């Protein structure tokens, strides 16, 4: 990669960083969103080290001044890892505002012991809650809430509040938050379920508890990111990537860390769209250990329709619909006595350059095979160390597993365009069954960081309307207006805000023709 | 189902399987069994495993009471019932009838109501009967086999989470539906209900036996097919003697509200062997009619259920999205639904579709669904 020789003085740049499990990628984009430079470093135990190193290399190699950088976007796997590994999670006090309803299913039902232990013992059901139309089921008992807070005192790092039908009426949740801060201190972080998720009490409650448990993690991320940038004289507006391909300001991220879960695959998909110029295609992102396949629909990742488990916990988040298979550039290839081959699912990961055959190591990997087959040239390596006889077989296995995975993600039998990104994409042959074209865009190995830098700023609205009181057109107009306002409040330029999706779901068995309307709007910075 | 070993107790694993099977038998409606599953698991954790009774084991003189939730499934996802709410109608029923309830049963095996009575059985320490009164899911409370055979629905007992309860005597199931539905709205869109209290003898005569075991077997088949990497749709249809009516992709979905129900239709473009064909699927909460051109492939009260082509997992009317690749599967309904009264109660004309009911196997033999 050759950097540009001199930075244009009038250019205002943006940096996108994507922290993955193995590598931290960073990309520098100019005002026209062209990738000016990109770097890749290892993600180390202290994740912030990788971020600092990536920014340092990016500035040094590109020659761009830190002061010319206007925006910095970070997509990170910190929060996902914290949940999956049950590490660094904060202790959470949960107050469900539901009694006398909801007692048949206690809080944290279905959580495993390790995660319950991380959260701590303070989960309660207090009196209160609303009906679907906003009528009160029961009033708050403020003394009861205060007593629950006193019980938590000193034993929680944050409080999550989740009320029945809070998405329809958030008044009780807000009041509980005030009491929490009265009793536990004005700086006690509070997560309100009405700000986290949609209808579906248990799933929203789970997501709210996880969000509260991640507040310390995200605070560390944002502080580390600010510090890293400040260290290089970068005074940029910071954004954190969400899993729907849009951005949130870092102040906002400090309150909603759960929204960062699974942003990595989303960033790759968005980056692939930008680099290829396509808006509808399959995106195959091959990293060191896994291949993630997602679907690009009108420039955004297709969302999964099923309830989404995060670290074994059911939530009602909308997540990108991703199929992961155990195939990457470091995937280990094994030969059996009968002459058969197995590929993966384990990988040498970032040790590729010491353990793989072409680097003088003793482990046969998929990259060895790709280099031997001439798909990739890797200067300074020795392809003679690879036995050519097995390469055909290995290649057939890889091709078959990719073709199967692509077929599973397609929505019709028609061939689709396939965009290949990620460092491991050199494994892929020239043609694949089911693919009309295989597109390998420039900067394919930094699609995730580029995707991070591109994000739009979004806002959402979700509400139940009664079609007896409103006309359908008025309902949709109101919902759209509300989503647009949310997007501009989050930092989008109001002139660029567009409606991304409108979904309306009639609610069965309710009078007044109740309609649940969800709208999402997004705009440029 | 006769060759299958019937369930004798419910543990956490069997509850998992039943929840999946109930969603398949829910034929697109009936609500998500997830909340019922969590309530059942919690009850078993607290009170121990629940004993399952077969219809044949029931004392003819015994009192069997169905326990269910009535209202909007969407409301139940949010306003989870209280633990007391599910036994309160049983208390009312006992007071009114002057005797103890000997066993409970689900009123419908399809959807969220399949596992609702587990909590009541666990709390009371009484058995849960392996039977229901639909063999599927239907939208209205008179659409039960008890109604078909002239068993009175009354007394009817209802409760909300606040502690309100009501005891009603209605002249028939249609009036129960009207009055219970009105009360449900006042109770905030969902309520617990016990109706059709029956004797053991009546249950043997009029309930559909073995349906919890059926739901269990469906869940287990799908789970094991996934583990063994077999085609789950194929495995399931073989197991159930079901019909793969159509393989297709959803290209248009239209829902509208009509009298508190989600009515509408979905259009599927054929894939694989159905390439070039178009199928229409009509629904009112549940899928009720499937047609290609003017030809019906399956008609209510036979079961029409949508299975994800890859996973075999059921797709509901609410979750059906553009682009979904599904197999439209048809299953025979219980013979009780094929009587003139059954067809009058839950046949195509009741739902406003201008078709005469023709059994699915007859349609299949004409070539409509023989795949």
UniProtKB/TrEMBL annotation, chain A:
Pfam families: Hydant_A_N, Hydantoinase_A. It comes from the Bacteria. GO terms for molecular function: hydrolase activity. Residues 204-375 form the Hydantoinase A/oxoprolinase domain. Gene3D superfamilies: 3.30.420.40. SUPFAM superfamilies: Actin-like ATPase domain. Residues 14-183 form the Hydantoinase/oxoprolinase N-terminal domain. This is Hydantoinase subunit beta. It comes from Paenibacillus campinasensis.
TrEMBL record, chain B:
It comes from the Bacteria. Pfam families: S-Me-THD_C, S-Me-THD_N. Residues 14-169 form the S-Me-THD N-terminal domain. Gene3D superfamilies: CV3147-like, CV3147-like domain. Residues 173-360 form the S-Me-THD-like C-terminal domain. InterPro entries: S-Me-THD-like_C, S-Me-THD_C_sf, S-Me-THD_N, S-Me-THD_N_sf. This is DUF917 family protein. It comes from Paenibacillus campinasensis. The lineage of its organism: Bacteria, Bacillati, Bacillota, Bacilli, Bacillales.
């Amino acid at each position: 990669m050759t950097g540009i020789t001199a930075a244009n003085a009038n250019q205002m740049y943006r940096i996108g960083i994507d922290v993955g499990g193995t590598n931290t990628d960073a990309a520098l984009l100019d005002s026209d969103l062209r990738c000016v430079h990109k770097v890749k470093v290892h993600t180390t135990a202290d994740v912030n080290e990788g971020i600092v190193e990536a920014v340092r290399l990016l500035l040094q190699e590109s020659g761009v001044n830190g002061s010319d950088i206007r925006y910095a976007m970070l997509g990170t796997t910190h929060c996902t890892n914290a949940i999956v590994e049950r590490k660094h999670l904060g202790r959470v006090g949960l107050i469900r505002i539901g009694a006398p309803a909801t007692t048949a299913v206690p809080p944290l039902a279905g959580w495993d012991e390790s995660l319950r232990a991380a959260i701590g013992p303070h989960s309660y059901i207090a009196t209160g809650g609303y009906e679907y139309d906003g009528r009160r089921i029961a009033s708050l008992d403020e003394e009861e809430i205060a007593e629950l807070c006193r019980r938590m005192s000193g034993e929680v790092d944050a409080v999550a509040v989740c009320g029945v039908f809070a998405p329809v009426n958030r008044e009780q949740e807000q009041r509980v938050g005030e009491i929490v801060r009265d009793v536990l201190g004005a700086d006690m972080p509070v997560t309100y379920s009405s700000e986290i998720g949609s209808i579906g009490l248990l799933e929203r409650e789970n997501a709210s508890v996880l969000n509260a448990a991640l507040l310390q993690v995200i605070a560390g991320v944002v502080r580390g990111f600010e510090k890293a940038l400040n260290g290089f004289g970068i005074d940029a507006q910071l954004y954190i990537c969400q899993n729907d391909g849009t951005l949130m300001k870092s102040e906002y991220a400090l309150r909603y860390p759960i929204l960062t879960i699974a942003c990595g695959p989303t960033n790759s998909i968005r980056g692939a769209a930008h680099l290829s110029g396509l808006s509808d295609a399959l995106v195959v992102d091959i990293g060191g250990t896994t291949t993630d396949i997602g679907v690009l629909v009108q420039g955004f990742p297709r969302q999964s329709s099923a309830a989404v488990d995060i670290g074994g916990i059911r939530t009602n988040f909308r997540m990108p619909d991703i199929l992961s298979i155990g195939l990457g550039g470091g995937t280990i290839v094994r030969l059996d006595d009968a002459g058969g081959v197995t590929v993966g699912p384990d990988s040498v990961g970032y040790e590729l350059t010491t353990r793989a055959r072409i680097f003088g190591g003793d482990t046969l990997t998929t990259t060895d095979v790709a280099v031997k087959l001439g798909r990739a040239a890797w200067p300074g390596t020795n392809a003679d160390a690879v036995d050519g006889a097995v390469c055909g077989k290995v290649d057939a296995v890889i091709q078959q597993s990719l073709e199967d995975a692509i077929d599973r993600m397609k929505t019709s039998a028609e061939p689709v365009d396939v965009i290949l990104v990620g460092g491991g994409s050199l494994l892929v042959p020239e043609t694949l069954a089911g693919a009309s074209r295989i597109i390998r865009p420039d900067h394919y190995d930094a699609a995730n960081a580029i995707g991070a830098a591109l994000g739009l700023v979004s806002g959402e609205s979700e509400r139940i309307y009664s079609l007896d009181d409103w006309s359908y057109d008025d309902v949709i107009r109101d919902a759209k207006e509300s989503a647009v306002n949310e997007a501009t409040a989050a930092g989008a330029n109001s002139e660029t805000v567009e409606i991304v999706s409108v979904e309306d779901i009639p609610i069965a068995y309710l009078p007044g023709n109740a309609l649940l309307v969800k709208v999402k709007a997004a705009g440029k910075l | 189902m006769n060759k299958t070993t019937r369930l004798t107790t419910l543990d956490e694993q069997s509850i998992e399987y039943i929840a999946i099977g109930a969603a398949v038998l829910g034929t697109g409606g009936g609500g998500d069994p997830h909340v019922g599953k969590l309530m059942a698991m919690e009850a078993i954790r607290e009170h121990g495993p629940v004993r399952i009774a077969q219809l044949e084991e029931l004392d003819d003189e015994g009192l069997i009471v169905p326990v269910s939730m009535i209202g909007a499934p969407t409301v139940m996802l949010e306003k989870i019932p209280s633990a007391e709410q599910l036994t309160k109608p049983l208390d009312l029923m006992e007071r009114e009838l002057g005797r103890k309830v000997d066993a409970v049963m689900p009123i419908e095996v399809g959807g969220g109501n399949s596992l609702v009575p587990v909590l009541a059985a666990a709390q009371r320490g009484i058995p849960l009967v392996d039977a229901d009164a639909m063999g599927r899911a239907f939208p209205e409370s008179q659409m039960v086999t008890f109604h078909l055979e002239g068993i009175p629905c009354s007394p009817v007992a209802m409760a909300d989470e606040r502690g309100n309860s009501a005891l009603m005597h209605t002249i028939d199931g249609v009036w129960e539906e009207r009055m219970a539905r009105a009360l449900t709205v006042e109770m905030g869109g969902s309520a617990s209900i016990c109706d059709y209290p029956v004797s053991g003898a009546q249950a043997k005569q009029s309930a559909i036996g073995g349906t919890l075991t059926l739901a269990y077997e469906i869940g287990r088949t799908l789970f094991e097919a996934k583990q063994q990497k077999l085609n789950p749709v194929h495995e399931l249809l073989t197991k159930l003697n079901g019909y793969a009516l159509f393989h297709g992709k959803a290209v248009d979905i239209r829902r509208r509200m009509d009298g508190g129900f989600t009515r509408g239709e979905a259009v599927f473009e054929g894939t694989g062997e159905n390439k070039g064909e178009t199928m229409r699927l009509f629904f009112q909460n549940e899928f009720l009619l499937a047609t290609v051109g003017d030809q019906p492939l399956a008609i209510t009260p036979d079961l029409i259920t949508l299975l994800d082509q890859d996973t075999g997992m059921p797709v509901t009317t609410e979750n059906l999205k553009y682009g979904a690749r599904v197999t439209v599967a048809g299953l025979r309904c219980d013979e009780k639904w094929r009587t003139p009264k059954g067809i009058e109660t839950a046949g195509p004309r009741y739902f406003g579709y201008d078709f005469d009911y023709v059994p699915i196997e007859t349609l299949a033999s004409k070539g409509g669904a023989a795949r």
